[in-house]
Amino acid sequence: MIKYQFLFILLISFSSLFANPSISINASQDVLRETVSRLAIDDVQQLLQETCLCIVDLNNEEASIQLVLQSPSKRTSWSNEKGIRHKKDKNGIPHFYYPSTNFEWSSKAKGDVIFLTLQADSPEGIAAALYALLQEKLGFRFFHPRKMIVPKWKDWPLTSNWNWKGKERFLKRGFHLHTMHPIELTEALLDHNFPNGQQMIFEYIDWLARNGQNYFEFNLLNSIELDEWLPYAKSIVDYAHQRGIIMGIDISLHMIQQKAFMLYRNVPASFKSKRKQVLENLNGLAKVGWDVYNIELSSTEYTSGNAKRRTKLKQLIVDWATEQNVKIMGRAHVVKKGEAVLNYQGEKEVTDAERGVMIHTVMFYEIAEEKAPVYGNENLKHMLSLMDKEQVQRETWYFPESAYWVTFDNSVPMLLLPYLSARLNDILLMEEKGITGHLTFSSGWEWGYWLVDWSIARWSWDYEKEVHPTDALELLFEDKEVVEAFNEVLDLQNNYLKDQELIRYLVAQSVMDEVPKIFSREFHPRPKWRYKDLYRNVDATVLNQLMQEAILPLEELSTASNQVLEKMATYSVSTNHQVPLDELKDALIVTNLRTKHRQQCLMAMYEHRTAKLTKNKSANENNALLKAAAFRQEALAIVKQREAIYAYDLTMLSTQRKGHTAYHFGYLFPVSNLHFWKREEEQIKRNRWGFGLMNIWHIRRIMGLSK
After folding, report:
1. How far from the centroid of its chain's Cα atoms is residue 323's Cα?
2. Which residue of 74, 204, 207, 400 is most buried, as measured by CB atoms within 10 A?
3. Which of 126, 153, 168 is the last residue of a domain?
4. pLDDT, mean over the chain
């Protein structure tokens, strides 16, 4: 293995370090010539200057702290190498090439001088090692694209003698921003005229680089103005490449859902052929410089379309990609067992090794756990089996979620800490299996969901220490009592929401939950009984089951959570750390209020149906609804406080507005008025249970049947 010798020498005289502090980063022209290492050095230079409140120079031999960077033997970074994009592994399977970024730091003291020496495998490794040193050792915390903690040193924070390694768990690691949904960066990514859009995207790319990530992807939609957008996109891709980031674009062959960008459209025979449309669109997109094309081959997530035509066009795309030296990837959706393979490669289709696959899982479930009642499945083990099958014949990545927008968690909102344990367990399993890529499906960062993304980014590296679900909180707050409180909430949520499956009652109902059963398709976990049946039809036996399996356990959960949250309310940390702590506490309080709200709504149904069966009028139904409304109002007050300090523009996030997606509102619009909470109360008051009541989803537009 070719090693980069990156000699990072700190000449520290403890008697004079802060009396006359100055730092110099001394680097050869070879190191500075490589953009990925130069931009990292420039960034680190500014960050250190802010930390020590001192001058940080380049090549200043008079400085009291010298960071000397020796020239690497291999002098070209990945983004500057031409023609090297695919390499075959030991089994002959082609993989998209990215250099190793493993590194090792060693520190030794000689008198009053401390020498920090870095060995890294590549210029990209130099950048990753610099940021890892800042975050894991020197007190910086890059936890959010728009928020970070910059420490203030009174003394040099490290001991003199130590060794430390950073090993990548995955060769490719990064995030897919699901811009089919109106999340923080959707408009900035899709609208070339969006105010400060480029700056917002550069901020996110910097966050990726600072957290050792090297892949970024988002959905392209057919609502863009393609010719005007392409130069704008090129500026984004160029900057990402300078930061060592592989750039992917998510498009479709002919997907009609949610305004997906199509490589061809169905037009009369007198117009361009499908083959010509595909090539013209691909050649147009190629001007931007994308490295990976993640292409949906089906018309919808649940249909395979014309298999023969798809196979021919797929081969056309693979041949084109080979000529262009780019990578084609595809997704295996989480659908019912037996459908995933059909969706991905088609029945009896011959495997092509050049095209990689991303194995998708959803929500806060692990790929190997016994209970994951999503998309009509008992669990997700069929996706694990598919992964094992595909890994031996093509490049295979894991593609899980850090949140699920539509009616599950961050549209309610709920901060579900089991995402942390699920994602960590999956990461360790993927590492054990030798999966080469980990791509996280990200659905927004407010209400604490940045914690999940940040944790995943850190877990994509092995930093020679034991990892656990809340270790990012340890790094962020450095307070055992605070972290222990979060661990208690995590244990409660894992026990009640996952093991006892109370999540079935806390999620909002999707449209598919409320259409006639003949059309119904299950997405997230559903209640054991339809709510309208609980209100209208069930007998005393079912009511007793409802009490024992839902109402009483929800009350237990809320009571136990209250005890932890009351302790947490008394905790405080340093000023910079208090801001993220307050956000997480608010998110957990609202999550617990959601528990109380749903418990009272279920109680109202229970009381109503009991009164009908016993033919005794009771005021308990109204009392329960009044309590539910009170919990909603309490949560809404917290929502309004948080909206004042959202990291991105409130109008963009929380109001009804037209944009590039099929949803004419921001992703936090349902949160702004706790829409689903209010709707559930109204369903009971009005005895109306169809999806049309207070519906916010434009079904035809989402399905691609209207504009």
Report:
1. 32
2. 400
3. 168
4. 89
How many CA atoms lie less than 13 Å away from 228 in the CB half-sphere?
8
HSE-up (13 A, CA, CB side) for residue 319: 9
Supply the DSSP string of 295-309, one letter for each residue: EE-SSBTTB---HHH
What token pair was written down for 164?
Answer: 């430390």
Per DSSP, 79 falls in state G
Binned at pLDDT 50, 70 and 90, residue 300 comes out as: low
**Range 572-595 average pLDDT:** 94
Contact (Cβ atoms closer than 8 angstroms) between residue 579 and residue 149: no
Please state, in angstroms and rounded to a whole number, the distance separating the CA atoms of residues 588 and 489: 9
Alpha-carbon distance of 97 to 82, in angstroms, equals 12
Is the residue at 707 inside a domain?
no
Exposed, middle or buried: residue 136 (CB in 10 Å: 0-12, 13-18, 19+)?
buried
Report the distance separating Cα 599 and Cα 612, nearest Å: 20
- Beta carbons within 10 angstroms of residue 19's beta carbon: 8
Q: What is the mean pLDDT of residues 630-648?
A: 97
Question: Do 685 and 618 share a structural domain?
Answer: yes
Which tokens belong to 452? 């999940």
pLDDT value at position 306?
61
Are 211 and 179 a contacting pair, CB within 8 Å?
no
The predicted model gives 403-422 an average pLDDT of 95
Answer yes or no: are the C-beta atoms of 398 and 439 closer than 8 Å. Answer: yes
Q: Hey, what amino acid is at 202?
A: F
**What amino acid occupies position 268?**
P
pLDDT for 343: 47
Query: 13 pLDDT band (50/70/90 cuts)?
Result: very low
pLDDT band at 73 (very low <50, low <70, confident <90, very high): low
Domain count, the chain: 3
Could you tell me what percent of the chain has a pLDDT over 90? Answer: 69
Q: What is the pTM of this model?
A: 0.94
Query: Domain for residue 186, yes or no?
Result: yes
Alpha-carbon gap, residue 567 to 102, rounded angstroms: 41
479 within a domain of the structure (yes/no): no
Q: Distance of CA 494 to CAs 377, 568, 594, 616, Å? A: 19, 19, 16, 39
Structure tokens at 439: 């791509």
CATH of the domain at 184: 3.20.20.80
Range of the domain at 249: 173-464
**Is the Cβ–Cβ distance between 93 and 393 less than 8 Å?**
yes
Which of 221, 217, 195 lies closest to 208 in space, CA to CA?
217
Residue 155 shares a structural domain with residue 209: no
Distance from the Cα of residue 576 to its chain's centroid: 24
Query: Beta partners for 173?
Result: 438
Provide the residue type at 346 as one letter.
Answer: G
Mean pLDDT of 552-562: 98
- Residue 578 within any structural domain of the chain: yes
Residue 18 pLDDT more than 60? no
Q: Which helix (H) or strand (E) holds 37?
A: helix 35-52
pLDDT for res 21: 57
What is the pLDDT averaged over residues 678-700?
94
Could you count the other beta carbons within 10 Å of the beta carbon of residue 155? 8
Report, as an integer, the average pLDDT of 416-439: 98
Buried b (16+ CB within 10 A) or exposed e, 658-696: ebbbbbebbbbbbbbebbbbbbbbebbeeeebeeeeeee
More confident residue, 489 or 335: 489
Report which DSSP code applies to 510. P
Average pLDDT for 117-127: 89
CA-CA-CA-CA torsion sign (321, 322, 327, 331):
positive
